[in-house]
Amino acid sequence: MDFTQRMLARLTLRTQLADMPGERFEQLIHQLLSLLHPDFVAVRTHGNLGDMGADGLLLWKRELWACYSPQTEDMSKVKAKFRSDLDKALAKRPDSFDTFRFAINDLKGVHPELSVLMAEAQEKLRPLRVLSYGWHHLWNDVMRLDQMAAEDLLGCELPVQEKTYGLGLTDLEVLLARLGDQRRTAEPLAALADVNKYKLEWNRLTGDVRDALIQGIKQSHLVEAYYAGIASPDEGDQVAQGFRVYYDQTRGKTDNQEKLWSALQEYILGNANPSLGSMYCAWIVIAYFFQRCDVFDVPPDGWAPGVAVGSGA
Q1: Of 59, 200, 285, 312, which one has the greatest count of Cβ atoms within 10 A?
Q2: Higher per-residue confidence, 304 vs 151
Q3: One-letter-per-residue 3-state SS of 236-262
Q4: What's the CA gap between 120 and 139, in Å, rounded?
Q5: CA 6, CA 12: separation in Å to the nearest integer?
Q6: How far is CA 187 from CA 182, 190, 267, 286, in A?
Q7: Triad 103, 108, 112: Cα angle to 5°
Q8: Which class in CATH covers the domain with range 3-154?
Q9: Residue 20's pLDDT is what?
Q10: Residue ranges covered by each domain of the chain
């Protein structure tokens, strides 16, 4: 898949996972592993036997899979599911696996309590292995698929043709109006720093995120035109304040730029399944606030790539 296909696939998958119920998550894992591994066995429940402690098996790797997609923050249920699946697997399939892999639908990572439980289980089970399977593992595996398989998995088309140059202000209006509706009441904006040409480098924006931002910058003037054309002269500043508050809150939870970028896209687009056009529009909006210096950090005065802060060079 090319750059735009990867970005659309990533955004689509994250949006789907955000509220995916357990049965659908298990189906997603079954479908993905079946596409990647000819030895994968998707295990179904049967009468009193249940699934005998396995949602799936990789026969050649001797790997047993259990899947759980929580719809609640109640970790007691997650831990109970982990213990139950592992205990059943050990009791009913003791000679069938060398690795117990627990797939969980959590975009934020493994919960601390679950990580402790997994570490304890690993110590007790050596030489058997206990492994987790989360967002990054899932995404890396999706990237191994060809376009047709990825579209089948995600249930949507991943267009090849370039559409960015056909976007206009009317395409952005719905998203900008939505941002206006969800803006937050806050103190007036502090003075903004001037845009620095090295801001991309200072924030270590590379790869797909950098490419998406540069793509958005090409048409960020459309956002400026939108705010210049509406009746409320301070609308842009008020929306920018809400955007900055959200960015600061998100950055307090992670310093991973890919996660920050994904969070900003989701803030703009909401929970609806994204299209290629809406994704491009989100890039344009983020680029506008990036250029205003509402999101991502501004380099210190005098900084340039390869120059240490405070070196005076």
Answers
A1: 285
A2: 151
A3: HHHHHHHHHHHHHHHHCCCCCHHHHHH
A4: 27
A5: 10
A6: 16, 9, 21, 21
A7: 80
A8: alpha beta
A9: 84
A10: 3-154, 166-292
